Amino acid sequence: MSSTSSLILKLSPLALPYLALFCGGVFLTVCQSFGLLTPLPYPGGMVDAYLELLTDSSFFASFVFSLGVAAVSAASAVTIGTLLAYRIWKLPGRLATVALVYKIPLVLPHIAVAFVVLVFWSQSGILASAAHQLGLIRSMTEFPNVLYSGWGIGMILAYTLKGTPFAMLLVMAMLVRFDARQIQTADMLGASGLRIFFSVVLPRLAPAMHTGFIILFLYSFGAFDIPYILSESRPGMLSIQVYNLYFKHDLARRPEAMAILTIMFGFAVLFIVAYSKVVRRLEDGVRKL
Questions:
Q1: How close are the terminal C-alpha atoms of the chain, in Å?
Q2: How far is CA 162 from CA 122, 144, 154, 186, in A?
Q3: Strands (E), the chain
Q4: SS3 label, residue 102
Q5: Rounded to the nearest 5°, which phi and psi values hold at 32?
Q6: Measured between alpha carbons, how far is 255 from 249 in angstroms, rounded to an integer?
Q7: Is the bond preceding 235 in cis, omega lying within 30 degrees of 0?
Q8: Residue 96 has pLDDT above 90, yes or no
Q9: What does DSSP assign to residue 34?
Q10: CA distance 207 to 171
Q11: What single-letter DSSP state applies at residue 41?
Q12: Average pLDDT over the chain, rounded to an integer
């Protein structure tokens, strides 16, 4: 038996469930988006679901809205997580051990984080109550409508709160292998703290930051749990639009829901490829300089 065949045989216990569940699900989704293998015979043409979406302004509004929420929340989580991880890494040993409490939000489900944001930032939440007790507002209804202002701020807060410790975990893994003598050398040469961070530390952390951004962006773009609690009515996240089409309409609109999922999956693949190419070119340009 060749080494390739032996490797395939060893990986088969992991590969078979992957092929059956993930690849099978993608195949069924794509087929149903074209009106094939649907629970009931689909009267329309193979591309009617896609044509319906292309002529629906609400779909484009939801797509842009989902992109904005995902991009802002992922960028915020990676930025905050990187800065916090760097500060924790520079702490003395005992304090750095205590600072590991940042991992606690990692064990919380996303929907629990959504409720935390809801409890704190709603017009009947803790911050509104505190402002009313302090006399800053006359009634709790005067508290700014942060969560449902039309900008997706509630979802951005929740995704940032949940994504920051994840980004910190990735960055800390890079900092553990970082040679602190490089910082000491730059400091002896007269470099400022900001110059050291941006010129010496940040380039070494870039791979972890890019990986974290891709993961957090794509999850926020397609997730359902947090938008189900904190999403705007219009425009809503694409995941909510899929849910409504799948569960709250008749089976005749099933291909539209599957078409949205197919578009989201295709966008995710193209985003990873494009983002990776852009980052690779930027890194090559930096090396040439």
A1: 49
A2: 18, 23, 12, 34
A3: none
A4: helix
A5: -70, -25
A6: 11
A7: yes
A8: no
A9: T
A10: 9
A11: -
A12: 86
Do 84 and 91 form a contact (C-beta atoms < 8 A)? no
Tell me the average pLDDT across 251-278. Answer: 92
In 56-152, which ranges are continuous DSSP H helix? 57-90, 93-98, 110-121, 126-133
- 22-33 pLDDT, tens per residue? 788 888 889 988
Average the pLDDT over 140-149 and give the result: 85
Q: What is the four-CA torsion angle of 34, 37, 41, 42, rounded to 10 degrees?
A: -10
Nearest to 64 by CA among 267, 255, 245, 265: 267
Dihedral sign for Cα 113, 141, 228, 71, please: negative
Instruction: Give the span between the Cα atoms of 18 and 82, in whole angstroms.
Output: 33
What tokens does 112 get? Answer: 């629990």
Domains plus CATH for the chain?
Answer: 30-288 (1.10.3720.10)
Task: Quote the tokens at residue 267.
Answer: 């966008």
Token pair for 68: 């904005």
Placement of tokens 């520079």 in the chain: 90
Locate 76 and state its tokens. Answer: 């915020």
Going 236 to 72 to 213 to 53, the CA torsion angle's sign is positive
Distance CA 179, CA 16 (A): 42
Q: Is the dihedral of CA 136, 137, 138, 140 positive or negative?
A: negative
- Environment class of 225 (CB within 10 Å of its CB; exposed 0-12, middle 13-18, buried 19+): middle
How far is the C-alpha of 244 from the C-alpha of 227, rounded, in Å? Answer: 13
Residue 65's closest CA among 212, 277, 230, 214?
230
Which residues, including other chains, have CB under 8 Å from residue 265's CB and lie 6 or more apart? Answer: 26, 29
Q: Compute CA distances 159 → 109, 150, 213, 216, whole Å.
A: 11, 16, 12, 8
